[in-house]
Amino acid sequence: MSNHDKLRELIIDTFLLDPSEYSLDLARESVDTWDSLGIVSMAVGVHETFGYHFTPEEATGIERVSDIVRVLESKGISFAA
Amino acid sequence: MPVVRETLGDSSALDAAWSDPRTFAYLPEKTDVREEWVASALAALPEELRSGHFALLTSGSTGHPKLVVGERARAERLARTLHAVQDSDPVAETILTLPLSYCYAFVNQWLWARVSGRRLVSTRGFSAPDLLRGALEGASDAMLCLVGAQVTLLERNFPDLVFPGVLRIHFAGGGFPQAELGRLAAHFPNARVFNNYGCAEAMPRLTSRRAEDAREATDVGRPLPGIELSLGEGAELFFRSPFGATAFYEQDELHLLSADDWIATGDLAERTEAGTWRLLGRANQVFKRYGEKIALARLLDTVATAWAGQANFYRERDRMQEEGFCLLLTPAPAEEDVRAVLKAFRAAHPRTHWPLRVESVPELPVLPNGKTDLAALATLVGKTIHWKNRL
Predict the structure, then answer these.
(1) CATH code of residue B336
(2) Of A62, B257, B300, B320, most Cβ neighbours within 10 A?
(3) Which residue of A has its CA nearest to B320?
(4) Confidence bin at A17 (pLDDT 50/70/90)
């Protein structure tokens, strides 16, 4: 499974999304379940899936799914196709 | 005073004890409670309770055995009241699937049959399914008393069978299977289904409603004639009943009860806009999580909108040491069922109200009285995890 697929599965699972809701452009403000506890859940899920601990600033600064990709790639986790 | 032990499938000893004016205790066929303890409880009864009464064993809220004492005349009046409220005239017999030492079956079936001149059909419940099947197939105008957990046993044992001779089905003693009414109707096309609520101290009935009169399993309807309900602090539900127990014995202490007393049910509840009563759960099933009040019974209503099988919760702390709970489904759900349940949670509740995990087991542990063994859920082996909340 590619890292993109893992991230997709994680985001759908964490925020209880319908798969059709998911995209890299998906914004925090458009997801009702992406609240403060949702951020904690997402950060735990990223650690379990990719082995990287978001700092609190990184976790709260994420506005879109693509921001997660950007942070993880900056830590050497590749999302190249 | 006599101590009578139940023999499953044979009520003759109970018939004899009821005909004897002396107060007696009626115990399950198997119990770890010593007869000496029961005898000492009976010995503690004051003179006025030493005749014309009966005593049944239940587990108290503290987990200690509790002997609850009822007056026979009151219980007989309750059985007649139930007959009228539940329109039982067309019913000619009642088929036992639960032990008679369980006060639900004792009053709703054995005593009802006695005072209304109906037939009691003894079976060994789902422990001898062929016998039960024979009774159900042979029935032409019967009443059944079940607990919710038995619906799964019914499905497993008689998946394609139809029993048109069952006219009434009562549920009590746990969650009402509102989500399974369709499946029940397929098995029992001519049955009216009732949700009954009460507790041992009520001996045992407080409310009753027809299944179709509410959509939520937690709605227990209205009090029976003569019974009053009220709320205390923290939504604790109290009752006052002319049919209630006269005493109980617990932890070597006798407590006398008056029909004028307000007695705690041990449940939390609220009144609906329609004037019925809605259970919020046992006192230990309502708690704060991240500052939000969680009522597990209400969350079962949410699960029931998306899942027709059985659902139970058990408590567990999350990784931040906040009180939480896990959802245990039976039988094993398909992936789309789990998604539907989670979607229902998302639509109706904030994340604080979501379970820590959604799990399943093929079969729930069952107590001798047919109820789910809730205390065993947390430590069950062989659970399948379908989803986990990462809090």
Answers:
(1) 3.30.300.30
(2) B300
(3) A40
(4) very high
